[in-house]
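Hey team,

Sharing the Nudix hydrolase 14 run so nobody has to redo it. Sequence (91 residues) first:
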Amino acid sequence: MLCLVRDIQDFRSGVGVTGSKQTLFYAEVTDEMKASEGGGQPEEGELIEVVEIPLQDSLNFAFDETFPKTMGVIFSFMWFQTNIAPKLLEK
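Structure output:
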């Protein structure tokens, strides 16, 4: 199966401190594409938490201040709700 990766937006985080450039990508994947449970490669020092959020809860999660997140994450949820979610809800 082929997964198309879409370049969404470049932005700067930590402006005034480090100003690192980050790029936001979007890809649609299915359970059939899953190769492992996820979580990164611990032997390489990776610790990646896999979080699945139901579509109807995603915008609430973005604005819930009890979960720490960057502005890039908040922007990504808003982008998704504007550009992808309406098409999914039509199906």
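The first strand starts at residue 5 and ends at 13.

Ping me if you want the raw files.
A.
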